[in-house]
Specification:
This protein is α/β, with parallel strands linked by helices. The protein has 3 domains: 10-80; 111-359, Type I PLP-dependent aspartate aminotransferase-like (Major domain) (Aspartate Aminotransferase, domain 2, 3-Layer(aba) Sandwich), CATH 3.40.640; 374-498, Aspartate Aminotransferase, domain 1. Helix content is 44%, strand content 12%. The protein has helices at 10-29, 42-48, 63-76, 96-108, 119-136, 150-165, 170-173, 194-201, 222-234, 257-267, 304-307, 322-329, 362-397, 427-447, 474-498, and strands spanning 143-147, 183-188, 209-212, 238-245, 270-274, 299-302, 315-319, 401-407, 410-415, 453-457, 460-466. Strand 4, helix 10 and strand 5 (270-274) form a beta-alpha-beta unit. It is globular.
Length: 499
């Protein structure tokens, strides 16, 4: 008989699973009472997991002891993006059904690279992609694929676009293949850094990226976009790809997508929407008008693990022309025989994206959409936006908090001591306020009562709160402003002595 150290009997698996699920349920029950983030250091964490140079264990350990130790480590030493007072980044509270779906997906362990290897998983992914498209107002018959997150979702669309827009065989000759002109990419100065990564990885280089100016709402200026496109054409360059952002990272600003769509149609450019964060808000009855133009794009990136509340990882690339997506990634090695029937051809996702072996990311998205439904999403997303506006209003009412911006579900503000209120524009006072708020952010994160991140707005260091969390209540919004003011005042007394 062969020894199987990795195997568990059905009885053992059942007992371990019940014990772990009970622990997770109790963790979720008490999540609100826990610190949002641990006050710890890398060295302390390494010591807890025996990371001080210990090698691979020679002998295996008891599975129950391993899982209980892992649960204790995770529950006591993690930053909880599902905590009701986590506002740091655009990472949502994950649906519990999505977590259970991940367990199911990992247990079957489908390879969603080819239909023959994953029949039901492939069809569930196809349906999930179509549902995501329909929720945001994009054509349901577009091409699409689930990927790891926003960076990859945007890059997959970029790869499809540049192969479509290049006037030469880029696959054969590369990005600099003769008689190539340099393909140019355009986005506002507020664009997420995925575009720089994408230009780098695709071999276009950072010189191919044009930064377009923004207006007072921090949305792209169409006049500057048009000017830069015209200048590049006159210089012999090849304008190709324009990014409209549906919810910028810093402030949640939405670019003027209808105007960008018209300009791209006039100029023959690929119009891409980075909707990783904001695209789901398009389903709201009172959605910003600009979001209605998502359906005009050639491609869209969406992150279900953001505002569709799926567990990490879950990104989605949508391309209006399925052939453009397929042409960018399809190869047919001799060792793959997955063609199937000509009458009912299968979808083989290894031909639609950069991965061959692919996990079943779609199941958690599919399960969450089925549980929540369109109406449920409208309620939760609408509540997130309303709570963000309430936070902005609380900031505006406080005598020592300066409310700065609010868009979608992102609010920014900063602590301003009362005696600096009139002098905040003075160079020395501005420097002090930036230092004060920088240290205030660090202290708030360390204390673990609330978790914020930052934005820098025209040289002003701001505290930034993004709400994509179905566990957040009004009391949590009020707590953010109270904590920011209380800790800010304590810190101000300390720093004035040194400044």
């Amino acid at each position: 008989m062969r020894e199987k150290p990795a195997e568990l009997s059905p009885e053992e698996f059942r007992a371990l699973g019940h014990d772990l699920v009970d622990r997770i349920a109790e963790f979720l029950r008490g999540l609100r009472e826990r610190p949002v983030a641990p006050d710890t250091t890398p060295a302390q964490i390494r010591s807890l997991i025996g990371g001080g140079g210990n090698g691979v264990p020679e002998r295996g350990e008891d599975p129950q002891a391993i899982l209980r130790n892992a649960a204790e480590l995770m529950f006591d030493h993690s930053t909880f993006n599902g905590h009701p007072r986590f506002f740091g980044y655009i990472t949502s509270s994950a649906s519990p059904i999505g977590a259970l779906a991940d367990l199911l997906a990992a247990s079957v362990n489908s390879n969603v690279g080819a239909w023959q290897l994953s029949p039901v998983a492939t069809e569930v992914e196809r349906q999930s992609v179509r549902w995501v498209a329909e929720l945001i107002g994009f054509p349901g018959d577009s091409g699409g694929i689930m990927v790891s997150g926003g960076n990859m979702a945007n890059m997959v669309c970029l790869m499809a676009a540049i192969r479509k827009k290049a006037g030469w065989n880029m696959r054969q000759s590369g990005a600099a293949g003769a008689p190539a002109k340099r393909l140019m990419l355009y986005a506002s100065v507020e664009v997420h850094t995925w575009l720089q990564k994408g230009a780098d990885l695709c071999g276009l280089g950072l010189d191919s990226v044009r930064a377009v100016a923004v207006d007072e709402s921090r949305a792209m200026r169409i006049d500057d976009l048009r000017r830069q496109i015209e200048a590049d054409r006159q210089a012999g360059l090849e304008p190709a790809f324009v990014v409209g952002t549906a919810g910028t990272v810093s402030t949640g600003a939405v670019d003027p997508l209808p105007e960008i769509a018209r300009l791209c149609a006039e100029e023959g450019l690929w119009f891409h929407v980075d909707g990783a964060y904001g695209a789901p808000a398009a389903m709201l009855p009172d959605a910003p008008a600009a979001l209605r133009a998502i359906g005009l794009a050639d491609s869209v990136a969406v992150d279900p693990h953001k505002w569709l509340y799926a567990p990490i990882e879950a990104g989605c690339s949508l391309v209006r022309d399925p052939k453009a997506l397929h042409d960018a990634f399809s190869f047919h090695p001799t060792y793959y025989q997955f063609d199937g029937s000509a009458e009912d051809p299968p979808t083989n996702f290894y031909e639609w994206g950069p991965q061959n072996t692919r996990g079943f990311r779609a199941l958690k998205v599919w399960a969450t959409i089925r549980q929540v439904g369109r109406e449920g999403y409208r309620r939760m997303i609408g509540d997130d936006i309303a709570l963000s506006r309430a936070m902005f209003d609380e900031a505006a009412k406080h005598p020592e908090i300066e409310a700065l911006t609010q868009s979608l579900s992102i609010a920014t503000f900063r602590f301003v001591p009362a005696d600096l209120g009139e002098d905040r524009g003075d160079a020395r006072a501005s420097e002090y306020l930036n230092q004060l708020n920088t240290e205030l952010l660090a202290r708030l994160q360390q204390a673990g009562h609330v978790y914020l991140s930052n934005a820098v707005l025209d040289g002003v260091f701001a505290l930034r709160a993004c709400i994509v969390n179905f566990r957040t209540e009004h009391e949590d919004v009020v707590r953010v402003i109270e904590e920011s003011a209380r800790v800010g005042a304590e810190l101000d007394r300390e720093l004035r002595v040194r400044f």
